[in-house]
């Protein structure tokens, strides 16, 4: 009877912690930025400054969580900023119109919130269906709807600004300005959206389908995945995230105009790419997106605390970050596929 003798000369694989720069890179960059902020101005670590910074990051962060699904599945949505402006405008018109019937209480605010969610889902559904059923590039479709939504809010405001009734705004203000356990409510919403997004992307069939479609759409079709349905759902999810961000944004300024949400799409995409999600699809990281959104807000905050670089160059910095991040992703992809 023969026996198999193990080959002791074969190298053994070492198990244990393995440092992955792609995973930990955004977190390291976040810490480095924080240290830079402290060196520039000690007030950076002040409780008020940190609270304000995290609250401001919640808007883009929530939208970016939705964008993570769209980009992971191989799509792109350039309409999120214009969509937010349009939703905010409709919310304000609706709540102002309901004051006479329902007064300035919570009922009026709830109607506005409900309208926001319906509009967000509807706008996302339109983007998804036109992209998938029309077989049109997502870049073209969302570029078109970006112009449509921006034009609609300009029309609704008659070229000016839509302003929420001050009494309604007083009822609505706690959604943005109040805190729970010392943490601002928008930050709690951001964390909840990120947690739900993380579970959905990493522990559900829907998330696995997003990865599969982004990696190779044809193979996903051959694997009996309903590609059009899944991709459309990612845009619907993006629309819901935009509506949630708008819900906590409206009580902050209490107004909407053609300038509302400008460059939000740039910031959302930047947050996703900085966080490690691959722009060509097939790979996404929710917590990386969260870090990316905080980093972008932190950059703007640091620019406010120093006179070395004008705060008006914030968009320039974000644009450079996107280009560099995509370049590094492609360089890494080429290296791994040589």
Description:
There is one protein chain. The protein has 338 residues and is mainly alpha-helical. It has one domain: ABC transporter involved in vitamin B12 uptake, BtuC (Orthogonal Bundle). Helix content is 72%, strand content 3%. It is built from 14 helices and 4 strands. It has helices at 21-40, 47-72, 80-102, 106-133, 138-156, 166-172, 174-177, 185-203, 205-215, 217-222, 227-253, 264-274, 286-305, 314-336; strands at 161-163, 179-180, 183-184, 255-257. Strands 1-4 form a two-stranded antiparallel sheet. It has a two-stranded antiparallel ribbon with strand order 2-3. The N and C termini lie far apart (46 Å). 42% of the residues are buried. Mean pLDDT is 86; it is low at 1-6 and 10-15.
Topology:
Layout: H1 21-40, H2 47-72, H3 80-102, H4 106-133, H5 138-156, E1 161-163, H6 166-172, H7 174-177, E2 179-180, E3 183-184, H8 185-203, H9 205-215, H10 217-222, H11 227-253, E4 255-257, H12 264-274, H13 286-305, H14 314-336
Antiparallel strand pairs: 1-4, 2-3
Helix pairs in contact: 1-13, 2-8, 2-9, 2-11, 2-12, 2-13, 3-4, 3-5, 3-11, 4-5, 4-11, 8-9, 9-11, 12-13, 12-14
């Amino acid at each position: 009877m023969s026996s198999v003798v193990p080959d002791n000369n074969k190298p053994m694989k070492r198990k244990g912690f393995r440092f992955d720069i792609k995973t930990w890179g955004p977190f390291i960059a976040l810490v480095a930025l924080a240290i830079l902020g402290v060196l520039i101005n000690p007030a950076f670590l002040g409780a008020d400054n940190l609270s304000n910074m995290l609250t401001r990051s919640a808007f883009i962060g929530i939208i970016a969580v939705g964008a993570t699904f769209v980009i992971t599945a191989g799509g792109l949505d350039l309409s999120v900023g214009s969509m937010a402006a349009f939703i905010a405008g409709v919310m304000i018109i609706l709540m102002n119109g309901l004051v006479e019937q329902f007064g300035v209480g919570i009922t009026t605010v709830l109607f506005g919130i409900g309208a926001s969610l319906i509009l967000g889902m509807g706008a996302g559904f339109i983007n998804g269906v036109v992209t998938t059923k029309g077989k049109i590039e997502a870049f073209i479709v969302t570029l078109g709807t970006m112009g449509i939504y921006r034009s609609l809010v300009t029309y609704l405001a008659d070229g000016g600004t839509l302003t929420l009734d001050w009494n309604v705004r007083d009822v609505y203000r706690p959604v943005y300005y109040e805190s729970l356990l010392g943490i601002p409510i928008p930050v709690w919403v951001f964390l909840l959206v990120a947690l739900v997004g993380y579970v959905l992307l990493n522990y559900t069939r829907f998330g696995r389908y997003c990865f599969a479609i982004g990696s190779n759409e044809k193979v996903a079709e051959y694997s009996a995945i309903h590609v059009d349905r899944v991709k459309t759902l990612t845009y619907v999810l993006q629309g819901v995230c935009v509506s949630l961000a708008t819900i906590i944004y409206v009580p902050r300024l209490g107004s909407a105009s053609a300038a509302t949400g400008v460059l939000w799409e740039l910031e959302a995409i930047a947050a996703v790419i900085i966080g490690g999600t691959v722009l060509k699809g097939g790979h996404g990281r929710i917590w990386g997106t969260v870090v990316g959104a905080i980093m972008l807000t932190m950059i703007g905050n640091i620019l406010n605390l120093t006179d070395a670089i004008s705060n008006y160059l914030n968009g320039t910095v974000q644009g450079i970050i996107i280009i560099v991040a995509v370049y590094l992703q492609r360089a890494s992809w080429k290296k791994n596929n040589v």
